[in-house]
Amino acid sequence: MTESRQPLSDRLSQWVHWTDAIALSTALNGNPPAVPSGARALSSAEENECARVRTTLRNAIVGNQVFATRKRRGPAHVSEARVDTAIDYPAFRQTYLSIQQSMETGIGNLRGRLRALLAARTPGMGRLAEVDAVMERALGARERSLLASVPGLLGGHFDRLRKAGQETVADDPASGDAPAVTPGAWLDVFRKDMQSVLLAELDLRFQPVEGLLAALRTS
Q: Which Pfam families does this UniProt record tie to the protein (predicted)?
């Protein structure tokens, strides 16, 4: 894929509404916000809560039965091929959307909580919290739009794998109760691929949280 030669600043300008650009400029160039009294240091409670949310979301992906590969004993059964032809993509799509919603809610709450802690530190950290809030608001719609397209792309991947799997089984020269090609193997490949994409999305969504945590640790 050819890398875009358009400067990053130009690409960002296409994503950020002019009102958000003004807010971002104000956050960067305006007077630092006043720091309220009684600011408290980052405690293990916040660190633990971030770790808990991430672990919970990861377990929802790794431990989801929709992505569990089937355990086969001995030769593949003919019924497996019949089951695979009956499986369709909407069940996977719904699971993906549900996990996406859980990520957006859980990580969004964390991000707001960490920003509040950051704003209570120093004027410089308060400015960083303002910038993060503006960036979340400015780029959130673009991020949601891009991530919302992933289930559709995976739907195409599902169809291609199923077609290739069915053609492979149909062309299998083996016969009898022990075919050389296992019916439904394509489905396990798809489950693993979708799970991997969700885990990558979790890492992507958690990057702002990691950045705020890093700032809190150094302040």
A: DUF3348
- Cα-Cα-Cα-Cα torsion 50, 51, 57, 59, nearest 10 degrees, comes to -170
As a whole number of angstroms, the distance between CA 77 and CA 179 comes to: 9
Q: DSSP class of residue 65?
A: G
Q: How many Å apart are CA 205 and CA 70, to the nearest integer?
A: 30
Q: What is the pLDDT of residues 87-125, one digit of tens each?
A: 889 999 999 999 999 999 999 999 999 999 888 888 888
For residues 131 and 28, the answer to whether their CB atoms sit within 8 Å is: yes
What DSSP character marks residue 75? S
What pTM was computed for the model?
A: 0.74
Report the C-alpha gap between 15 and 19 in whole angstroms: 12
DSSP code for 67: G
39-74 tens-digit pLDDT: 555 567 888 999 999 999 999 999 999 988 766 544
